[in-house]
Automatic annotation (TrEMBL):
Gene3D superfamilies: Cytochrome P450 (1.10.630.10). Its cofactor is heme. This is Cytochrome P450 2K1. Pfam families: p450. InterPro entries: Cyt_P450, Cyt_P450_CS, Cyt_P450_E_grp-I, Cyt_P450_sf, Cytochrome_P450_fam2. The keyword Cell wall biogenesis/degradation does not apply. It comes from Dicentrarchus labrax. The keyword Oxidoreductase applies. Belongs to the cytochrome P450 family. One of its GO terms (cellular component) is cytoplasm. Heme binds at residue 311. GO terms for biological process: organic acid metabolic process; xenobiotic metabolic process.
Length: 368
């Protein structure tokens, strides 16, 4: 199951090798680079087209956003994006999404197992297609790079962690960790804009003053302090991975004069820390702004966790959030479905491994 894959992937030497390889290759295939920014921009265009098709009528943003975000991982992992109506792709994404929702609810372990088995079968089919057309001189994505490394090590007779199970485990982990998290954060962002129209006004005012109708780029971030603060505050309040990936010491221990209790730390305790945040339970972008409206970093902002095990995809996630969110706000005004007031938009999360917004629909009225 997916849980077993985490366990396989996340222990000892195997984890070290896989993490190092994943980081290097995610960078090679674009994480934090201009090429990746271009992919995100291209994907934004597809997403905007989908939103436009609803012609201002309310709709559930889940699927289109999941497809767009997932395509970024697909480009990096397999080397190409998929069309939103490709059944192979939609079932892959829908499955990952259902898997994530099911983790943490033991009563549905059986269906969870079935879903992840199908997910594995589908990936094995994709891998064998990539293997057939593999060109070691020109890796299309992460899977190619892994297959080439595996082949080279096998030819030289070296025993290594680069075996088929770890390839599957790593790809599943990149999908599981890289789609739902970012997509959920974006959906929280749009929901919060619909709920707080005055804050949406301020974001749109900043965007039209600083950017106008041209495409937002990562470089613009420094000139968009309010938008940046809104994205950070969305991540803080949405607190989408409240338990992080649960780690704990094997016993109570004192290390360099610090007492560490044998317990699982919660990110919630930092993101909602009453001694750190002026309004921990409210949506308050000013948490990240100084009195002159400049962006300020906050030490207690750690939605990606910290330390050696911290999120491997942080820079990719930040790139995605910083392109998708402002671009969507340049093109659309977001509001609640007809008959629903802003007050009635519910911010109670739906509980799963990640905290998703409860079911809701939004109107996206074209403004460009
Ligand atoms: C807003 C988006 C995201 C958030 C909030 C987030 C958050 C987290 C958190 C809290 C952890 C656990 C860290 C720990 O164990 O202490 C984690 C781990 C991880 N994340 Fe992310 N993540 C996001 C996006 C991504 C993306 C886009 C990728 C894909 C490249 C990714 C890949 C991973 C991986 C592979 C791990 C496991 C790292 C390891 O065990 O060494 N994440 N993430």
């Amino acid at each position: 199951t997916l849980t077993e894959h985490w366990v396989l992937w996340s222990n000892g030497d195997s984890w070290k090798d896989m993490r190092r390889f994943a980081l290097t290759n995610l960078r090679d295939f674009g994480m934090g680079k201009r090429a990746c920014e271009d992919k995100i921009v291209e994907e934004c265009d597809y997403l905007i087209e989908v939103f436009k098709k609803f012609k201002g009528k309310s709709f559930d943003t889940t699927q289109p956003i999941n497809y767009a975000v997932s395509n970024i991982i697909c480009s990096i992992v397999y080397g190409s994006r998929f069309e939103y109506d490709d059944p192979e792709f939609t079932s892959l994404v829908d499955r990952t999404n259902r898997n994530i929702q099911l983790v943490g609810s033991p009563s549905i372990q059986v269906s969870f197992h079935m879903l992840s088995t199908e997910f594995q079968q589908q990936n094995l089919r994709l891998f064998s297609r990539l293997k057939e057309s593999l060109n070691p001189q020109m890796c299309r994505g992460f899977v190619d790079a892994f297959l080439v490394r595996k082949q080279n090590l096998e030819e030289s007779g070296t025993n290594s962690h680069f075996h088929s199970e770890n390839l599957l485990a790593t790809v599943l982990n990149l999908f599981a960790a890289g789609t739902d998290t970012t997509a959920t954060t974006l959906r929280w962002g749009l929901l919060l804009m619909a709920k707080y129209p005055k804050i949406q006004d301020q974001v749109q005012e900043e965007l039209s003053r600083m950017i106008g109708s041209r495409q937002v780029q990562l470089e613009d971030r420094k000139n968009l302090p309010f938008t940046d603060a809104v994205i950070h505050e969305t991540q803080r309040l949405a607190n989408i991975v409240p338990m992080s990936l649960p780690h704990r010491t094997s016993q109570d221990i004192t290390f360099q004069h610090h007492f560490i209790k044998k317990c699982i730390p919660l990110l919630t305790s930092v993101l909602y820390d009453e001694s750190e945040w002026e309004k921990p339970y409210s949506f308050y972008p000013a948490h990240f702004l100084d009195k002159d409206g400049k962006f300020v970093k906050r030490d207690a902002f750690m939605p990606f966790s910290a330390g050696r095990r911290a999120c491997l995809g942080e820079s990719l996630a930040k790139m995605e959030l910083f392109i998708f969110f402002p671009t969507l706000l340049q093109h659309f005004r977001f509001s609640p479905a007809p008959g629903v007031s802003e007050d009635e938009l519910d911010l109670t999360p739906r509980v799963g491994f990640t905290l998703n917004p409860s079911h809701h629909e939004l109107c996206a009225v074209s403004c460009m």
